[in-house]
From TrEMBL:
This is Glutathione S-transferase. The keyword Membrane applies. The chain crosses the membrane at residues 6-26, 54-71, 77-96, 108-129. GO terms for cellular component: membrane. It comes from Colwellia chukchiensis. It holds the Pfam family MAPEG.
């Protein structure tokens, strides 16, 4: 029987974070009375980008994580990469919330996200070649 319990755990945590980011946008839209777009509001624009960036990177990372788990990847690596992905997404939200420009948290977040994608791509390619 195929199981994705580790990927499922991290996907669930990330889903909760995604919902939190979504609720933040809704809260801002209601308080600012802006129905679509950012209306030129920098705080709302940043919240929209945090949410968008999450939606751009997390699905691919979860697909790669699931592939690795389905191919009997090492549980320690799965947990390390899953935890790093969560930390990177939290750091990204914090960094972009503090400044729309460069910030240490944002740089760490993107570097960490790239590490997650690269490591998962490499281990999945390696499993394919070795199999």
């Amino acid at each position: 029987m195929l199981q994705l319990s580790i990927t499922g755990f991290y996907a669930s945590l990330l889903a909760l974070l995604y919902l939190g980011l979504t609720i933040n946008i809704i809260r801002l839209r209601l308080s600012l009375q802006i129905g679509i777009g950012s209306g030129g509001n920098k705080v709302l624009a940043a919240a929209i980008r945090i949410h968008g960036n999450f939606a751009e990177y997390v699905p691919l990372a979860l697909i790669l994580l699931a592939c690795y788990e389905l191919n009997n990847g090492d549980a320690t690596i799965l947990h390390a990469i899953g935890a790093l992905l969560i930390i990177s997404r939290v750091f990204h939200a914090i960094g972009l919330s503090k400044s729309i420009g460069a910030s240490l948290q944002r740089q760490i977040a993107m570097l960490s996200t790239f590490v997650v994608l690269i490591v998962l791509a490499v281990v999945n390619i390696r499993l394919f070649i070795v199999a």
